[in-house]
Amino acid sequence: MLFRLVSAVKRSGTENRQFVQRIPQTVRAKAAGRSFKVDLTDEISVAIKISPQAESVRFSLRTSDASEAKRRQARAAAALERIWEALRTNEPVALSHRQATALSGRLYRAWVDEQSSRKVVVEC
Questions:
Q1: Among 23, 78, 24, 17, CA closest to 49
Q2: Mean pLDDT (the chain, rounded)
Q3: Which one-letter DSSP state was computed for residue 49?
Q4: Nearest-5° Cα angle at 113, 112 to 114
Q5: What phi-psi label fits residue 90: left (phi over 0), alpha (psi between -120 and 50 degrees) or beta?
Q6: What is the Cα–Cα distance from 31 to 50, expressed in whole angstroms?
């Protein structure tokens, strides 16, 4: 597995650091149009959507502290590397309990909305 060296970038107009990583050419077509959630800490996560013309992933690390930015940078880089590897191998991505619960909630709400939109006609 090839690890890319990535460092937090100083953003203009703010003290917060920014994560920037190139999307590998091998997965760019598969990643286009998909949304991902990257956990920066146990409490803070970032939702990203890859557009078809995107060449890199960019988002705020939501901290101005250099040491905290390094920790969040490492965690985000590891998460994206797992996503890229899963897209290369076409294998499912392991979900955390929190992610699985959120996904099941979305599935349930979609099912309930579909059921409530159906009208039941009872003839007597």
A1: 23
A2: 87
A3: E
A4: 90
A5: left
A6: 6
Predicted TM-score (pTM) of this structure? 0.68
Provide the Cα torsion 110, 115, 117, 118; round to 10°: 150
Reading the block at residue 36, the tokens are 């991902």
Report helix, strand or coil for 48: strand
Q: According to the model, what pLDDT value does residue 9 have? A: 77
| Contact in structure between 61 and 40 (CB atoms under 8 Å) | yes
Within the chain, residue ranges assigned H as helices are: 28-31, 66-89, 97-117
Q: Which of the residues in the chain have pLDDT under 70?
A: 1-7, 119-124
How far apart, in whole angstroms, are the C-alpha atoms of residue 118 and residue 124? 19
CB 43 within 8 A of CB 12: no
Biggest distance spanned by C-alpha atoms of the chain: 72
Rounded-to-integer distance, Cα 36 and Cα 83, Å: 8
Please give the distance of CA 22 from its chain centroid, rounded to a whole number.
Answer: 15
Specify the residue for token string 């003839």: 123
Distance from C-alpha of 59 to C-alpha of 68, rounded to nearest angstrom: 15
